[in-house]
Amino acid sequence: MGRLGALFFLLGGLGALAQVCEITEVDSELVERLGQRLLPWMDRLSLEHLNPSVYVGLRLSSLQAGAKEAHYLHSLKLSYQQSLLRSASGNDNSDSEAKPSMGQLALYLLALRANCEFVGGRKGDRLVSQLKRFLEDEKGAIGHNHKGHPRTSYYQYSLGVLALCLHQKRVHDSVVGKLLYAVEHEEHLRQAHLSVDSVAMAGLAFSCLELSNLNPSQRDRISLALGRVREKILKAQTPEGHFGNVYSTPLALQLLMTSHTPTVELGAACLKAKAALLASLQHKTFRNPLMISQLLPVLNRKSYVDLISPDCQAPRVMLEPAMGTSSQTQVPEVIHVTLKVSSILPPYVQSISVPAGSSLEDVLKKARDHGRFMYGTQASLSGPYLTSVMGKKAEGREFWQLLRAPNTPLLQGLADYRPRDGETIELRLVSW
Ligand code: B12
């Protein structure tokens, strides 16, 4: 057999072995280092900073944070229940205080399931009714003819359906129907760069519904939609192996792992994606706690669908805080970043000097404190979200997009992206 023949033989063999989407064991040190990055975030216990996704990610991982983890759930319960129930009862005078959104309420319900709890009692029932109401409102916003859009997004809609399903709460066929329609006519989910995340979240919701059989009259449509989701995700694989981009790959893998229909294509695609993810872990691509929280379950071969019947007794390794690295005494090098805003009149262009390693948020702060630049942000589970620039607020379905000139959308937000010397960053008001 020639060399080429041997290669085909080997690849064929691998393909034949790898049929379902299996994530084989990952170097435990690598996983631990990833988990350690979550620990400092778990000390931030205000409503603005509490992140139910972090709790879910940790509980579905091979790691634990002992008492810190229990305290975190306790703080989540206090803050979320208080603020959600207050807004439900109409006794809410705290307009200035952000209330958890539909998706955040859904993630909170996931966190309860991750601790093997079912929502129950009077307070629990009110949370369930609130989430059902949110979904009904969103269904209304999409409209009978499916021409409208949810006020939040199909991603949050899917999270809502998933959360109720995990708690064995049935939603009306017409609510599931809107999500089915969106996947069947996928242009509704095609929101530029983020279609893979949204499709994967819809798939996780369908996968839960399929297993729980809560909407039996839609069984066949759900199975077909799941097939479409898988197909779409597989088609979105990049030559490096990511599904969509590096940050949508964890959710995509969570979804693919729920598939029990083995195909050679599926197994091979997952092997490639795992290799790509491992390579990015070496490069510390995953620093954002939300992103880490979506990845950790995958590295432990789990998905959100496992929250149907979570294993709360599974042994998990205790996380120890990372050793501090020696502080640098050298004066850091200064870099120059050009900040550009063309969506306003007159356009803004300014070169800003910051220490090397600064985040884009540091650049914006410097431009504001030492010039005429203005911007506003809003806290989110992914970090600070840019909401306004030079007094111009993104409204409705607009957002301030972050780009590296000339035209490359950034894959990270203000707090995480670190510009290089000489780079031009554009802030552009666009519709999604
Ligand atoms: C929907 C969505 C959007 C919508 C949000 C509007 C809306 N009404 O929903 C739009 C299209 C506007 C958007 C924009 C961006 N997004 Co986006 N988005 C998502 C998505 C699919 C779901 C977010 C969500 O609803 N989460 C659930 C709710 C409960 O959590 P939440 O915190 O309350 O949700 C809010 C925030 O997530 C915020 N938001 C959305 N995207 C981003 C990105 C960042 C960095 C921040 C800080 C906040 C933020 O909008 C949500 C609604 O208010 C995620 C996918 C994922 N895997 O998480 C990507 C995702 C979070 N987005 C991402 C990115 C990169 C961006 C942009 C920075 C792209 C760009 N180059 O401009 C911008 C944000 C720029 C800014 N102004 O700060 C990445 C983040 C990767 C990372 N390293 O952290 C993700 C993971 C997608 C991906 N695979 O690349 N996004």
Automatic annotation (TrEMBL):
Binding residues annotated for cyanocob(III)alamin, in chain numbering: 152-156, 197, 245, 294, 385-386, 400-402, 410, 432
Subunit annotation: Interacts with CD320 (via LDL-receptor class A domains).
Keywords: Cobalt, Cobalt transport, Disulfide bond, Ion transport, Metal-binding, Secreted, Signal, Transport
GO cellular component, one term: extracellular space
Disulphide bridges: 21-270, 165-208
Coiled coil region boundaries: none
InterPro entries to which the protein is assigned, alphabetical: Cbl-bd_prot, Cobalamin_Transport
Signal peptide span: 1-18
Biological process according to GO: cobalamin transport; cobalt ion transport
Function: Primary vitamin B12-binding and transport protein. Delivers cobalamin to cells.
Recorded family membership: Belongs to the eukaryotic cobalamin transport proteins family.
Cross-referenced Pfam families: Cobalamin_bind (PF01122)
Organism: Camelus dromedarius
Name of the protein described by the UniProt record: Transcobalamin-2
GO molecular function: cobalamin binding; metal ion binding
Cellular compartment(s): Secreted
Keyword presence, Calcium: no
